[in-house]
Amino acid sequence: MGEEAALERQWRLPAVALRGALFALVAVFGWASVGLAEAATWCGILALAALPGVVLPRHRLLAPAGRLAEVAVVVLGTLATGGLPAWMLPYLIAPFATAAFDAAAPAEEGDRWSRLRTWGPPALVALAAVGLIAQAPRVADFNRGTYVSTAAVALAFGLASAVGAWWLRRSRTSDMHHSQLPYAEAAALLTQLRVVARQLPGSTLDPGGIATEIVDTASRIPGVERAAVLSAASGRRLVVLAEHAEERVDWETSPQLNSLLADAWAGQKPQAGQVPLSRSTQGPVASLVIPLVAEGRTVGLVAIESDDPAAFGPEAITAAEERTKGAALRLETALLFEDVRSMATTEERQRLAREIHDGIAQELAMLGYGIDNAMAILPPEAGEAKGELEDLRSEVTRLVTELRFSLFELRSNVDRQGGLASAIADYARTVGASAGLRVHLSLDEGGARLPASTEAELLRIAQEAITNARKHARAENLWVTCEVDPPYTRIEVTDDGQGLSGEASEGRYGLAIMSERAERIRGSLEIRPHQPHGTTVAVVLNAGARPTPRAEAPRPGSAAWAAADRARTEQPARRPDRGGGRGSQ
């Protein structure tokens, strides 16, 4: 009820102003109609009756009692001064409106006074009406009609003000509740997710693990030779979550280019035919696509191929549907959990970057300015003190530089349009330019994308390896190799620095973090010395799905690498069939 309390505090001043304006109005009317003495007497009594509503507007008992006293004083004062000209009746607007505004507030759980607030406005209107009408016979006959009309108009205006105040409070409360509704629903859903996640086995919310189980199940169908689970990604493309095949399969990830994939996704029905589901398949094949549908939504596709064109008849299609039944909901749950975790991680990294930038970074900058000012006012004979300040200023400059690198790393993400290789290359170029490293890039990225969570983990591993080379290795050259051909991926960072023996403790802590990230995405991390000196950090996903190499790649730092590097600098080569590129800086 914090929002309701804030709303009441917001309208407390307007309520007091309304009472003050109406009080001044009836005081002027009374002075003009019944004289100063009587007007002052009844206005004083009215002020005492209004005191609880002004001082204690939220009190559960005194505030309603004060409004009741205000109505009673208005009715008695009107009758005691002859009924006409009914100079006190305009003040009825104040107690009616405040009572209705209070009655429109939502009842708190266990509030015993909520019914008193609810029936307060009609009780006040009834009291005023009965009191004024009951005294009508005491008014002179020639004034009775005017009196009744005046009293009716006053009650109507008071009732209208009560309805307006009630509607205003209700509308504001509804607006606040509607603005908080998405957060309330999100909190409830996340709470349920946390409870369910604690009850399920640890690997159940891993999309890769669930996809692997689906592929293993589909691969046991008679006749199946190649199978994969495809899920939606950005840019109307698909990503390969898991696959089964004897040799490397280049699965089609664009539904627009394959009618079976597009029809299965849109129609949510199994599609069979002889259209290859991969770019690398040659010759006659039998293809089967089973959509994974959960709650009316297509979550993913199970793509199956066989070299026997007649492998998938009606019985095989029915068997495939039965084997994949129930997997869609599990996969969707895992993908949603992964998406929520990714958004939370990104938001937390952005929050940390903002706090560092607005906090310690600014304080360090001010400290540097203070050292500069101190050096400016040092006397010429303070040579030793000046040297100490210069050393301190250099250290502050180093810390500010490290903070800038940290902020850049925190804010770096894989662009939905650019891809993993582009993000790693941008980071390597920026770090290399700032640290004086010569960066050599070898990028080979096809059109297919990895899952967003996997790309994020690979980017962090590459960032950590590049940061270690910059901070601890004292290297001059940095070689970054990025091969992305889902599900196979290899990221390799090599430097010509002082090697693992020179790693600081924080650098070795970074190696442990990289190892944990690699395990999280089921990758293998290798850290080995680079000859003649330096370190190589490589992370590989799905090594068994590696494409057949066209030629042995030269080792970083070798003569062959240098020659290839010069050739790439003069004329960058591109793979026409994959859309990736190779370049150097």
UniProtKB/TrEMBL annotation:
<dbReference type="GO" id="GO:0000155">
    <property type="term" value="F:phosphorelay sensor kinase activity"/>
</dbReference>
<keyword id="KW-0812">Transmembrane</keyword>
<feature type="transmembrane region" description="Helical">
    <location>
        <begin position="12"/>
        <end position="33"/>
    </location>
</feature>
<dbReference type="InterPro" id="IPR011712">
    <property type="entry name" value="Sig_transdc_His_kin_sub3_dim/P"/>
</dbReference>
<feature type="compositionally biased region" description="Low complexity">
    <location>
        <begin position="545"/>
        <end position="564"/>
    </location>
</feature>
<dbReference type="InterPro" id="IPR029016">
    <property type="entry name" value="GAF-like_dom_sf"/>
</dbReference>
<dbReference type="GO" id="GO:0016020">
    <property type="term" value="C:membrane"/>
</dbReference>
<keyword id="KW-1133">Transmembrane helix</keyword>
<dbReference type="Pfam" id="PF07730">
    <property type="entry name" value="HisKA_3"/>
</dbReference>
<keyword id="KW-0808">Transferase</keyword>
<dbReference type="GO" id="GO:0046983">
    <property type="term" value="F:protein dimerization activity"/>
</dbReference>
<protein>
    <submittedName>
        <fullName>Histidine kinase</fullName>
    </submittedName>
</protein>
<keyword id="KW-0902">Two-component regulatory system</keyword>
<dbReference type="Pfam" id="PF02518">
    <property type="entry name" value="HATPase_c"/>
</dbReference>
<dbReference type="Pfam" id="PF13492">
    <property type="entry name" value="GAF_3"/>
</dbReference>
<feature type="domain" description="Histidine kinase/HSP90-like ATPase">
    <location>
        <begin position="453"/>
        <end position="545"/>
    </location>
</feature>
<feature type="transmembrane region" description="Helical">
    <location>
        <begin position="68"/>
        <end position="88"/>
    </location>
</feature>
<feature type="transmembrane region" description="Helical">
    <location>
        <begin position="39"/>
        <end position="56"/>
    </location>
</feature>
<keyword id="KW-0472">Membrane</keyword>
<keyword id="KW-0418">Kinase</keyword>
<dbReference type="InterPro" id="IPR036890">
    <property type="entry name" value="HATPase_C_sf"/>
</dbReference>
<dbReference type="InterPro" id="IPR003594">
    <property type="entry name" value="HATPase_dom"/>
</dbReference>
<dbReference type="InterPro" id="IPR050482">
    <property type="entry name" value="Sensor_HK_TwoCompSys"/>
</dbReference>
<dbReference type="InterPro" id="IPR003018">
    <property type="entry name" value="GAF"/>
</dbReference>
<feature type="transmembrane region" description="Helical">
    <location>
        <begin position="148"/>
        <end position="168"/>
    </location>
</feature>
<feature type="region of interest" description="Disordered">
    <location>
        <begin position="545"/>
        <end position="585"/>
    </location>
</feature>
<feature type="compositionally biased region" description="Basic and acidic residues">
    <location>
        <begin position="565"/>
        <end position="585"/>
    </location>
</feature>
